[in-house]
User: Which sequence fits this backbone?
């Protein structure tokens, strides 16, 4: 019998941060490409396109999620199991929906400015 006890607490939070980076980078890239295409067709600057605001709203969230992923990767072994379970819960039920709302609201506010 093996005495190895595997605990995967904290990995859900890592996956949420990593998936959020990929998803926000994807939608941000789509916003950039759409703004680039519209700018080339209309002759206006890329910053004047509405899709560019969604690109700008996504980039800080990508950087923030990358930083959180890196920090959590470094500290995941030194955290207690209770701390990692709490991080899993907060990232899934609060941070993931909140950053989607932040991205949408940021894009709409960027279009109004």
Assistant:
């Amino acid at each position: 019998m093996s005495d190895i006890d595997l605990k995967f607490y904290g990995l859900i939070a890592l996956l949420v941060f990593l998936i959020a980076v990929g998803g926000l980078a994807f939608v941000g890239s789509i916003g950039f490409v759409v703004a680039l295409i519209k700018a080339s067709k209309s002759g206006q600057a890329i910053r004047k396109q509405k899709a560019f605001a969604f690109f700008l709203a996504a980039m800080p969230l990508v950087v923030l999620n990358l930083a959180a992923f890196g920090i959590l990767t470094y500290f995941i072994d030194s955290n207690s199991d209770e701390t990692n379970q709490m991080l899993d819960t907060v990232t899934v039920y609060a941070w993931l929906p909140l950053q989607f709302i932040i991205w949408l609201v940021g894009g709409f506010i960027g279009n109004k400015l």
